[in-house]
Design a protein that fits this description.
The protein is an alpha/beta fold. It has a single domain, classed as NAD(P)-binding Rossmann-like Domain (Rossmann fold, 3-Layer(aba) Sandwich). It has nine helices and seven strands; from the N terminus they run E-H-E-H-E-H-E-H-E-H-H-E-H-H-H-E. The chain has a seven-stranded parallel beta sheet with strand order 3-2-1-4-5-6-7, with helices on both faces. It is globular and about 50 Å long. The chain starts with 7 loop residues before the first strand and ends in a 6-residue tail after the last strand.
Length: 247
């Protein structure tokens, strides 16, 4: 299915990991994709993979916590492709530790990247989408933003805030034909989670009714749906991709 022919997508944090899988899925379905990340080498490799799929792609280095950098990202996209149809706010970091041990910088940096970064992206992209009177914005939250998690107070706060931001932006932008939704992944089998000790992984499985970890592709499938015309009457929603972890 080619749901994104003649569509331009911007995906932050897309040099590798879940963001890369999302970008590749959008490209496979016809989108031209702007890869945005702080990782230059990995970002350029992802651009080449998208070009190998027959789609146009550029890499723009961007720290999403920097308003000037985010504005430049959107300006480069407009200069190269003329429009922005899809924005996926995926960039994020973790600095996990118990609250009593958490340094101010651990708190501030996670909130800056995971929450402020999405706000800056929405603000910059919405200015162009409002002119078009169309657009799809998908924010990558987390199941942790809905249920909390010991040792992740900063991350949980940022991802919970992202859900509130999603709903507020959805209400503000709906009159201009722009939808804003969020995807909340649960335990996804990534390079980072594969490094966890096996007993820890087995313990997580006890809380997942489907008894299996999700894949980055599972997240990409949900994002692709929300970014497509098939989801045109869905806005302000949070889709959990968690194997039933919080049903």
């Amino acid at each position: 299915m080619m749901r994104f022919i003649n569509k331009i997508a911007v995906v932050t944090g897309s040099a590798r990991g879940i963001g890369k899988v999302i970008a590749l899925q959008l490209a496979r379905e016809g989108a031209d994709v702007v890869i945005s990340d702080v990782l230059i080498e990995d970002g350029e490799k992802t651009v080449q993979e998208i070009k190998n799929l027959g789609r146009r792609s550029i890499f723009v280095q961007c720290n999403v916590a920097d308003a000037t950098a985010v504005n430049n990202l959107m300006a480069r996209t407009i200069a190269e492709f003329g429009r922005i149809d899809v924005l996926v706010n995926n960039a994020g970091i973790t600095r996990d530790t118990l609250m009593i041990r958490m340094k101010d910088d651990d708190w501030d940096r996670v909130l800056e990247i995971n929450l402020k970064g999405a706000f800056l992206g929405i603000r910059a992209a919405a200015k162009e989408m409002m002119k078009q009177r169309s657009g799809k914005i998908v924010n990558i939250s987390s199941i942790v933003g809905l249920m909390g998690n010991a040792g992740q107070a900063n991350y949980a706060a940022a991802k919970a805030g992202l859900i509130g931001l999603t709903k507020s932006a959805a209400k503000e932008l709906a009159p201009r034909g722009i939808t804003v939704n969020a995807v909340a992944p649960g335990f996804i089998d990534t390079e980072m989670t594969q490094k966890l000790p096996e007993p820890v992984r087995e313990n997580y499985l006890k809380f997942i009714p489907l008894n299996v970890f999700g894949s980055p592709q599972d997240v990409a499938n949900a994002v692709t749906f929300l970014a497509s015309d098939e989801a045109s009457y869905i806005t302000g929603e949070v889709i959990r991709v968690d194997g039933g972890m919080r049903m």
